[in-house]
Amino acid sequence: MSRKVYLNGRFVDKDKAKISIFDHGLLYGDGVFEGIRAYDRLVFKLGEHIDRLKRSGDAIMLKMPMSKRALKKAVIDTLKLNRLDNAYVRLVVTRGPGDLGLDPRKCKSGSGTIFIIADRIALYPKKFYENGLKIVTAKTRKNYIGAINPNIKSLNYLNNILAKIDGIKKNSPEAIMLTYDGYVSECTGDNIFIVKRGRLFTPPRTISLKGITQGAVIAIASREKIPFKEKNIRLGDIYKADECFLTGTAAKIIPVTKVDNHTIGAGKPGAITRRLLLAYQELTRRDGVRY
Ligand code: PXG
User: Fold this and answer.
1) Is 29 in the pocket of ligand 1 (CB under 6 A)?
2) Could you read off the pLDDT of 227-248 as tens digits, one per residue?
3) Which CATH number fits domain 126-286: 3.20.10.10, 3.30.1330.10, 3.90.1640.10, 3.30.470.20?
4) Spans of all domains in the chain
5) Could you read off the pLDDT of 72-98 as tens digits, one per residue?
6) The pLDDT of residue 110 is above 80
7) Going by CATH, does the domain composed of 4-119 fall within 3.40.50.300?
8) Three-state DSSP string of the chain
9) Which one, 12, 23, 40, 94, has least CB within 10 Å?
């Protein structure tokens, strides 16, 4: 059976799903999105993803084309129709077709484009979880938050793509992005944590995307009595950390054992990282919207 995607209220074959070349999502990256995961017919943190999508939309004055409840149903229906038990879901809302000018008002309100793709997830190789990632710092700095707020999960990902390219040039699967003033913010598609003397730290969630996986890790740490704090982190703090790991919907929790040729801790996934990963996996098995 060919995959079906949800597009503007209908299900269509993925090869037949077409949007206008005048769509401002394409012309300007004017739109918002979410990446969501389903584990064994449970959609993880669906409500939080829909809330974040709505907040991103509000921040750019883009009205969701349907209610939160209808958005959730559309995600579930897409998963069911494609008979996917484990999947990655991409939910996208764009400004819709307009003219060649930037003015969002030229995209008729109510005609925003919405589509949902559900597919099998391309997992990171198992060896990354066992041995840890070796990553680098991107040369490209993170957009200044006064220019683009990192908590708007918009279709405008060029800043992250440039950083990703910096990583690719150095054969690195992810790249750390620094703020203009030299603080660690996050990676191109993942949040970052370090562990030092049994304490867990992540950069302030105002200078990076408030990751849903990151939020789950913070909740687990609180439950497990692992001391946690949001803190400004410099690269030197990462180099000297006992443990480092990344979090994201796609990656879950992935250990980092080398950054810019500095070995982190003992050079293998740390005890707290492994503990958090196990607890996270357990959470994804029982917490979610069933379909
Ligand atoms: N920071 C950024 C910049 C992200 O794009 C995360 C952190 C993690 O957030 P969640 O809520 O997923 O824990 C993301 C996640 C990919 C991919 O292919 C990932 C993301 C976006 C686009 C692609 O891995 N977002």
Assistant:
1) no
2) 999 999 999 999 999 999 999 9
3) 3.20.10.10
4) 4-119, 126-286
5) 999 999 999 999 999 999 999 999 999
6) no
7) no
8) CCCEEEECCEEEEHHHCCCCCCEHHHHHCCEEEEEEEEECCEECCHHHHHHHHHHHHHHCCCCCCCCHHHHHHHHHHHHHHCCCCCEEEEEEEECCECCCCCCHHHCCCCCCEEEEEEECCCCCCHHHHHHCEEEEECCCCCCCCCCCCCCCCECCCHHHHHHHHHHHHCCCCCEEEECCCCCEEEECCCEEEEEECCEEEECCCCCCCCCHHHHHHHHHHHHCCCCEEECCCCHHHHHCCCEEEEEECCCEEEEEEEECCEECCCCCCCHHHHHHHHHHHHHHHHCCEEC
9) 40
